[in-house]
Design goal:
The chain has 289 residues and is an alpha/beta fold. It has 7 helices and 15 strands.
Length: 289
């Protein structure tokens, strides 16, 4: 099996999100990870600029996309999974614990009783430790909760797509204060990721460019062990949780969270149109005040 996929990152400046395409250079089969559907909150309009850039790349490179992969239901952008599935015909997938996130947010949004919370909005639900192949690249699923209850990491050869667990070393790690999040669980997930081989390339879900530097997405396990501001020196769980919880208490909610989660628990689909043919988002007033 190929040990080193080719990885191409796509950065969405509006949300600070990283999207990825990785592929096997021998078979030219590939997968898309965490694609962004554009959303303008002022106009309440969606768009496909990010997804179309990915489409141009895979078509120009001659990559056959065999999976469209979500790491978790995102709080800061809409998923473009259904749009890319329509264009490419590839199945969508996420971790099997997504059902817990669906049940939680179904209650928060007071969705109707018949809203499905069985993960059926995706074609495949992966279990912890499950393996699949993208061409000759072996991919292993790691359950990585803490940021959400459903988060998973995709370990593809010498690369790992670690979503909202680690940030770049100069930014530390991701928050754990969303509904269902837990800083203790996040610490343990981080330790499992850092137990991968030191030369494993870790690709993060976000970068907010501290001090105005260029956007970055990749660092090795060894680089995180040496320089990650929340983990270097072998920080204990207690020390990490204290740092993480203090930081989280100072952060506002992501600007798009209340819009994004109701779309992303639907697998990236907008709410069904009402009797006038119009789709609407629901906002739970004062729920997070």
């Amino acid at each position: 099996m190929s040990a080193s996929p080719i990885v191409k990152g796509f950065w969405d400046e509006q949300t600070g999100s990283w999207q990825y395409v990785f592929h096997d250079p021998d078979t030219m089969q590939g997968a898309i990870v965490d694609p962004v559907l554009d959303f303008d909150p002022m106009a309440a309009s969606t768009g496909t600029t990010n997804a179309d850039e990915i489409l141009r790349y895979v078509r120009n490179a001659g990559i056959e996309i065999v999976w469209i992969l979500d790491t978790h239901p995102h709080a800061d952008h809409f998923s473009a999974g259904p749009y890319l599935k329509e264009k490419l015909g590839a199945p969508t997938a996420i971790g099997e614990k997504v059902v817990n996130v669906q049940r939680l947010w179904k209650d928060i949004y007071n969705l109707p009783d018949d809203f499905p919370t069985d993960g059926s909005q995706w074609d495949r639900l992966f279990a912890d430790g499950e393996e699949f192949a993208v061409g000759e690249v072996s991919v292993r699923v790691m359950f990585s909760p803490g940021h959400t209850m459903a988060s998973i990491t995709y370990v593809a050869g010498d690369s790992a797509f670690v979503h909202d667990t680690l940030m770049m070393p100069d930014s530390g790690t991701s928050r754990a204060d969303f509904p269902g999040g837990d800083s203790h669980e996040l610490y343990r997930s981080l330790q499992a990721i850092l137990a991968l081989p030191d030369d494993t390339r870790l690709f993060v879900g976000h970068d907010y460019r501290p001090n105005g530097r260029d956007a970055q997405c990749e660092a090795t396990v060894a680089e995180h062990k040496a320089a990650n501001i929340h983990l270097k020196g072998g920080a204990s769980e207690a020390d990490y949780v204290e740092t993480r919880d203090k930081r989280d208490a100072s952060l506002p909610l992501p600007k798009l969270m209340l819009a994004a989660l109701q779309v992303n628990i639907r697998g990236g689909r907008l709410p069904e149109a009402e009797n006038n043919g119009q789709s609407y988002l629901k906002i739970p007033l004062n729920r997070f005040a």
